[in-house]
Amino acid sequence: xxxxxxxxxxxxxxxxxxxxxxxxxxxxxxxxxxxxxxxxxxxxxxxxxxxxxxxxxxxxxxxxxxxxxxxxxxxxxxxxxxxxxxxxxxxxxxxxxxxxxxxxxxxxxxxxxxxxxxxxxxxxxxxxxxxxxxxxxxxxxxxxxxxxxxxxxxxxxxxxxxxxxxxxxxxxxxxxxxxxxxxxxxxxxxxxxxxxxxxxxxxxxxxxxxxxxxxxxxxxxxxxxxxxxxxxxxxxxxxxxxxxxxxxxxxxxxxxxxxxxxxxxxxxxxxxxxxxxxxxxxxxxxxxxxxxxxxxxxxxxxxxxxxxxxxxxxxxxxxxxxxxxxxxxxxxxxxxxxxxxxxxxxxxxxxxxxxxxxxxxxxx
Length: 364
Known about the structure:
Blueprint: H1 2-10, H2 18-29, H3 36-39, E1 43-49, E2 57-65, E3 71-78, E4 81-84, E5 102-106, E6 112-118, E7 124-129, E8 134-136, E9 151-156, E10 162-168, E11 174-180, E12 183-186, E13 201-205, H4 208-211, E14 217-226, E15 229-238, E16 244-247, E17 258-264, E18 271-278, E19 284-290, E20 294-295, E21 313-320, E22 323-331, E23 336-343, E24 350-351, E25 355-358
Antiparallel strand pairs: 1-2, 2-3, 3-4, 5-6, 6-7, 7-8, 9-10, 10-11, 11-12, 13-14, 14-15, 15-16, 17-18, 18-19, 19-20, 21-22, 22-23, 23-24, 23-25
Helix pairs in contact: 1-2
């Protein structure tokens, strides 16, 4: 059935209805309409809340599309303490079904929240929060964006005032869009080739958060067909080095979600990565990397793992008196998350039992 409908869509290019039919078919093609909101993106980041006379407080924000087709915010205030962000109101309403998502803190002042999504006309936009409300920005200047693109974003600069966003073009190539000096620009740099069409993306700047200068260590991850299986490609772009690509060893689902976190290593300029993805059976695995030693020999299954299959993943990391902690989130239906939480990942790495977080059961 898929081949017939795909061929039919190829004959509709001259019709104004063709793009809408194509988007609808992409939504249905793999898993059916019941899973559209399951496959809509998930985005998260940690932030530090400061108040007079109190120590900094680590919190997390998570963005998702609810079954009403609008974009909402989860707020994590501490272990097992979830709330509905923005008083339970949507932060954007003009959202395409099944949209990918990406989020960062940065921009002109370095402190705005940017959540990237596709609107109902499949334009790439950012809704921007500054603590006093949310504003939907103008259409961003992307070219030839694929209907089934994923999104991934990071920041760079002393004040996080440069933003980089990757998306997939209709050719299958990955293209970079960046924000600097108050404006958006399409990158004239290298366009990546050979990713799987519809690949999920994960992206991190491994040095930015603690360097306090313009150093960078960008790490981009995507899926590619490799011989008789599917592999994760790791592309690194590190200041002072050539861009490098590496095929990672684990086999993965072709439609797996991807999520990555980074934190400072023990030596000067060293850092660690943890990459999360679904193995061919659909369970979430963890793959570790250090700038001093490279990738671990194999990926491992966390004791607190869960099944993710093709569902979107997001991950964040933060440190406290227990050490470096990691939170992995899996989209579970239109209005729920499955939370995997690990304490002291650099030492004992203790994983809690996965917890379901349901939007409808939370307080504002």
